[in-house]
Amino acid sequence: MQMKKNLKVNNIKLIDTNDGSYTLYSKQFDQCYHSTKAGALNESISKHIEPALLYHNGKVELNILDICFGLGYNTLATLYFIKLHNLNIKVNIYSPEFDKELLESLQYFTYPKEFDYLKDIIYQLSTKLYYEDDHCKIEIYNGDAVEYIRNSSIKFDIVYQDAFSSDVNKELWTQNYFKSLSLILNDDAIITTYSIATPVRLSIYFNNFNIYEYKPENSNRITIALNKKELHHNPKYKYIDMELKQQRNKDAKAIT
Question: Which pTM value belongs to this model?
Answer without folding.
Answer: 0.92
